Amino acid sequence: MPVTRIADDVLRYEDTCHVYVLKSGREAVLIDFGDGRVLDDLSDLGVDRITDVLVTHHHRDQVQGLHRAARAGIRIWVPPVERDLIESVDEHWRTRPLDNDYDVRQDRFSLLNQVPVSGTVAEYRTIRYGGYDIHTLPLPGHTVGSVGYLVTVGGRRLAFTGDLVHGEGRLWSLAATQWAYTGFHPNAGMEGAAATVLSCLQLLDHEPAMLLPSHGQPVTDPPAAVARLRTHLQELIDMRRATPWEPERLLTHPWKPVTPHLLRNTTSMANSYALLSDSGTALLIDFGFDLTTGLPGGHDRSSRRPLLASVEALRRDHGIDRVEVALPTHYHDDHVAGFNLLREVHGTEVWSPGHIAPVLAAPTRWDLPCLWYDPIPVDRVLPDAGAVRWREYEIGVHELPGHTLYAAAYSFVADGRRVIATGDQQNTAWSPEGGQPELLNYQYRNRFRIDDFVRSAELYRRLRPELMISGHWFPYEVTDGYLDMLLEQGERLARLHREILPREVDFEAEGFGARISPYRSTPAPGGTVELTVEVRNPFPEAELALLQLVVPPGWDAEPPVREVKLAGREVAETRFALRVPRHAPAAERMRVAVDMTVGRMAFGQQAEALVSVR
Q: Is 221 exposed, middle or buried (0-12, 13-18, 19+ CB in 10 A)?
C-alpha cells in the first residue's frame, strides 16, 4: 500500500494523483480522490469512515473514481467555478464545440460521466469538514477554477495545492496553463502561467510550512520553490511581451488614484472603481474579473472566474474595513461577475437601478448577450432617475441606453470634482488635435436604439462633469469641446441609421418587432409557462397586430392567437400560457416562436424562446 506519513494524522496515498487523508479518530477527510482505490485500504489506514472529499480541480486524474465516493454516501465538495465539469459534465460533453475549435483549455480532461456533489467549497473562508478547520484559497493556474486548502496540523500550516506546483519549483503540466489560443492580449497563451505566479505569491502570504501537491514530492521550502518557478515562468512569459511583466505590482498596487477618494482598479476586466468614505468603508462601481491575466477560451461556466484580490489592498493600503455597496453600470459579466462573491465573503450589498435589477436577478429570462451565469440578487432597487445617499456622497442615478438598454450613469462629487461613471458607453479617446476617433459603443443585440447617443450627450451637457470614468478606458478630463463632439457624433449616428434603414417600416435599430420572455424556461412535463410577448407597431398609423404562438407538435398555447391594437410606433405586451404535455419526454431547448402580422404586412416568426423539459 503506497502510503507516506506527512504529519500527525495526515497521510499521502498514491493513486492516479496523490490523495491526502486527514484523520480524526477513526474518521477522515480526503483531499482529491484519484480512482478511488483508497476506499479499499481504509482498514490499513486506521479509518472506518470517510466523511468528506474536497476536490482541488476537475481533471480526470483527480476525480476519475468519484462515483465510488457518491455511492458510499461520502459528501463531495468541489471548486465553485468547476462544479459543472463534475456534476453536469454530461451536458458539457454534449455541447462542447469540437469543429473549428480554438478553445485550447484542458476542459475535456474531465470525468467521462457526471457525479452528484454535495456542494461547493467556500472560497476565501474557513469551514469545518470532519475534524478539521479548512480554509479554501483560489489558486488559478493549472486550471481556471483550481483551489487549494490550508489546514493547520500540530501547529504547522499545510497547503494542499493541487497541481499548482510540482516538487521543488516545477509544473506538472505547462500545456494545462495555456488557457487561450495565442492572440493579441499581452499574456495571450500565457494566461495560466501568469495566474500560477500570482497564485504562488498570494499563497506565500499565508506562510505555509509545506506545500502538498497532487503530483510530486512535498515542498519543504515554499519560498525557494516559488522563487525558482517564478524565475522560469517570468522568462517564458516575457518572451511574448514587449515589456517585462510585473506581477508584484498587480498584487501590491492594484488601485490607482483618480482623486484621493476615488480609485481605479488597474488589474480588473473591466475597470472597477472604489469610492472611499471617511468612515472607512467603500462603494464599488462595477466589479467583474479581478486580477485578470487574460480571458480564457470558451464561454462555459468553468472559463470565467471572479476573484477578490484587490479588496485586500483596499484594507491594507487605504484603511477600508468593509466594502459596503456595489453598483453596476450595466449587467454585462465583466462588470458584475464578482458581485455575488463580494456579498458572500464581505457582506457587500448590491444596489441597482430598477431597469437593470431584473436582468441581474433573473438572467435566463432575457434574450441578451454577456449575461452572467448566476442570478445576482439586488438588495436595494434604486430609482432610474434621481439620487441616492451613501455615506457623505449624494449619487445621481441616470438611465444611459446606448451600449445597452440596461445601463446607468452615476454622477457624484469626489474631492471637489464633478465625476460621471458611464460604463462602456464611449471610449473617451477623443482629442481636439485628432487621432483615434471616439467610439460610440453600440451593439445591436444589447438593444441599442437610434437616438440613444443623442440622449446620453444631452445628459452629459446637463450634468457638466469634469471627469468621466469608464469601463475599459482611462479617466478623461471633460471639456466643452468633448461634449459638443459627443452630441455631434450622436446626431450623426442617428442620421446615418435613418438614411440606411427603411422609412416605411421602423423596427428601431435592433430590427425585430417582437420579443418573448422568459427567453429560457424549464417546466416539468405537464407544466405551464407564462410567456410575455412584447410587440412593436413599425408603422406611423394605428394598426392591429395579429400574434400566433408557434409551439412544438402536441403542445398547446392559450390562446393560440391574440389581437393587439397598437397606436403608431407603440410598443405593448400581451401574454400566452404555454402548456407542456403531461407525457412529454425530457428535451433541451425546444423552440417556441411568435408569428407576427401588423396591418396587412406579415413579418413571420419574429421572436423565439427556448423551453427545456426536465
A: middle
